[in-house]
Design goal:
This protein is mainly alpha-helical. It is built from three helices and no strands.
């Protein structure tokens, strides 16, 4: 999976493209498709940050099973 900075750069590129589309008065449907793609990218970044930070935060606790935490996080993310 791409790292967080790469994902953010992709989203920035998408948003810049949307801005150009608006400036050039492109079709509403085409703009909405790109907005949805950007939204999906933002959700991916959010999920990645939640997963990474939760694992890092809890991994210091020896009593917590890291694999169980990963499964739980995956379930939470997949249901959003």
């Amino acid at each position: 999976m791409k790292n967080t900075k790469q994902l953010i750069n992709n989203i920035i590129g998408q948003l810049e493209g949307i801005k150009r589309m608006l400036d050039n008065e492109k079709e509403c449907v085409d703009i909405l498709v790109q907005l949805k793609a950007s939204k999906s990218g933002i959700n991916s970044v959010i999920n990645k940050i939640i997963e990474e930070n939760t694992l890092n935060c809890l991994s210091g606790n020896k009593k917590v099973d890291r694999e169980k935490i990963k499964k739980l996080i995956k379930e939470i993310i997949d249901n959003n």
